[in-house]
Amino acid sequence: MKRTIRPAEEEISGVIPTLVFAAAWYAIVFRSIVSAGFGPYMLIFLVGGLLMPYTAVNNLRRALFYRRQRAEAVALGNVAQGRITGVERQYVPYRKGRHRRYRRYYFLQVEMYDPATGAANTIQSQGYRKPIHRYLASDRVSVYTDGSGWKHYIEDPDIFNMPKEFMGGEILGKVIFVFIAAWLLIQALLR
C-alpha cells in the first residue's frame, strides 16, 4: 500500500482529535450550565475550552502553508534527480514552559545533480518525525527547488512504501479515541 510520509512541518496531526475533544468539553460544560445554572466560575471553562480549537486551527494553517510552498516549488518545475546517501537523526530543542524538551527528527542527506552542469551538490531534506529510512523503496528521488534556489523538496511518491506490518496501529488509536470521545459526549448529554 502506497502512503505519503510528509515532513514534520507539513503534517496535519491531532486536529480532528482536538476538535472532537473540544466538542466533548463544551457538551459537558453546557450540560453543567443547564443543570446547575451559570456561575462566574463557568466562564473559566468556557474560555479555557477555546484554546483547543485555536491550537488545532493554527496547526492546520501552518501545515497548509508549508504544503502550499511545496506545491508552488513543484509547479515551478525546477527539478533535479538525486540519490539518498544517508539519514541523520537529530534532536531539535524546543521550550515547553520553562523546560527545554527535544523532538527527534530524521533528515535525509541527498546528493542531487544539476541537470545543466551535472555537478553534484549535497542537500539535507526537511525533518521527518517518522524514521523515513525504514520505509524507503529506492534511494532515487526527484528534488524540486523553489524560486529562491534555497529550499529543496523531495518529491517522489514511489519511494514511500509503507510495510503492511506497520499499518493499523495509527488507525486503531484514532478509532479508540473517537469512541471514547463519543461515549463521553453521549454520557454528558444524557445526564
Index terms:
191 residues, alpha+beta, five-stranded antiparallel sheet, 4 helices, 25% strand, elongated
Structural account:
By secondary structure, this protein is α+β, with helices and mostly antiparallel strands. The chain has 4 helices and 5 strands; from the N terminus they run αααβββββα. It has helices at 15-36, 40-48, 51-76, 169-190; strands spanning 79-96, 99-113, 120-124, 140-145, 152-154. Strands 3-2-1-4-5 form a 5-stranded antiparallel beta sheet. β1 and β2 (99-113) form a beta hairpin. α1 (15-36) runs parallel beside α4 (169-190). The radius of gyration is 22 Å and the shape is elongated. The protein starts with 14 loop residues before the first helix and ends with a helix. The relative contact order is 0.18. The model is unreliable at 160-168 (pLDDT under 50).
SSE inventory with pairings:
Layout: H1 15-36, H2 40-48, H3 51-76, E1 79-96, E2 99-113, E3 120-124, E4 140-145, E5 152-154, H4 169-190
Antiparallel strand pairs: 1-2, 1-4, 2-3, 4-5
Helix pairs in contact: 1-3, 1-4
Q: How do the strands line up in the largest sheet? A: 3-2-1-4-5
Number of E strands: 5
Q: Could you report the average pLDDT, rounded to the nearest whole number?
A: 82
Helix content: 40-55%
Structural class: alpha+beta
Low-confidence stretches: 160-168
Shape: elongated
Strand content: 15-25%
CA-CA gap between termini? 44 Å
Give a quick account of the main beta sheet: strands, pairing sense, barrel closure: 5 strands, antiparallel
Structure annotation, total helices: 4
- Radius of gyration from the CA trace? 22 Å
Order of helices and strands: HHHEEEEEH
